[in-house]
Amino acid sequence: MRRKVIAGNWKMNMLPNEAMEFVNTLAPLVKDTKNEVIICVPFTDLFYTLLTAQDTNIHVGAQNMHWEESGAYTGEVSADMLKSINVEYVIIGHSERRQYFNETDETVNLKVKTALSKGLKPIVCVGETLEQKEQGKTIEVITSQISKALENLTEQDLSNIIVAYEPIWAIGTGKTATSDDANNSIKEIRNEIKSKFGTDDVTILYGGSVKPENARELFTMSDIDGGLVGGASLNALEFNKIVNY
Ligand code: PEP
């Protein structure tokens, strides 16, 4: 179901004491917002963040998980492990994981299916590189990524999924897609989803250098349902301005 969502991705930042301080600062500032607020934190922060965020409207997510239930996968974390401490969301297929940890459309699909089967809500990331953009391949790339990521899912699954369109050239660079370009790309993702599932009623976020200064323009576009925010989600006061755009 389409709704406004502002999700933070802390990446490999923030210690548990910083995470708890962040939640304590943010919670009173966002208590009246109609937008859904999510923070996706490192594994070591999850438990502390969840405890501190209890009785607030801040939802908590992880940034990755393995698709297998358990076994000899040193260093990995399973969906059951996340679920056991009440994690609600998990980012899947972030471009940094695709780039540095060899994640592919196939492993993204495996992870999405496992997450859903275990009751976790995946935040599925797609986006083109600068080279692909310059070659005019943006739509071809992102529609193929979303089609493969959601393979073998049902229409019902869509209500438990959030999609994030994150052009890779805009992540952490200070360069933001124009609101028209971001909206058009997201419209194309919606069309692809509609052609596969018969509905485009799915929450789709924009990510890539979202800041308090550009949040409103982006989030009020017809097809953009909010944002996945990296750098600007590390400071509670700045993130609050984005949540309350
Ligand atoms: C991200 O990591 O998902 C992201 C969008 O980062 P930033 O906002 O820093 O560009």
Tell me what you see in this structure.
- It is a single chain.
- The chain has helices spanning 16-30, 43-53, 79-84, 95-100, 105-117, 130-134, 138-149, 179-197, 215-219, 236-243, and strands spanning 5-9, 36-40, 58-62, 89-92, 121-126, 162-165, 203-207, 226-229.
- The chain is an alpha/beta fold.
- It has one domain: TIM Barrel (Alpha-Beta Barrel).
- An eight-stranded parallel barrel has the order 1-2-3-4-5-6-7-8, surrounded by six helices.
- Residues 9, 11, 166, 171-172, 207-210, 228-232 line the site of phosphoenolpyruvate.
The CATH architecture classification is Alpha-Beta Barrel
Strand content range: 15-25%
Specify the CATH homologous superfamily. Aldolase class I
Number of helices: 10
The separation of the N and C termini measures 21 Å
Strand order of the largest sheet: 1-2-3-4-5-6-7-8
Q: Mind telling me the CATH class?
A: Alpha Beta
Low-confidence parts: none
Counting structural domains, the number is: 1
Please tag this protein with its features:
245 residues, alpha/beta, TIM Barrel, 8 strands, binds phosphoenolpyruvate
Describe the structure in brief:
This protein is an alpha/beta fold and 245 residues long. The protein is built from 10 helices and 8 strands.
Break the fold down into its secondary structure elements and pairings.
Layout: E1 5-9, H1 16-30, E2 36-40, H2 43-53, E3 58-62, H3 79-84, E4 89-92, H4 95-100, H5 105-117, E5 121-126, H6 130-134, H7 138-149, E6 162-165, H8 179-197, E7 203-207, H9 215-219, E8 226-229, H10 236-243
Parallel strand pairs: 1-2, 1-8, 2-3, 3-4, 4-5, 5-6, 6-7, 7-8
This protein binds phosphoenolpyruvate.
Phosphoenolpyruvate binds at residues 9, 11, 166, 171-172, 207-210, 228-232.
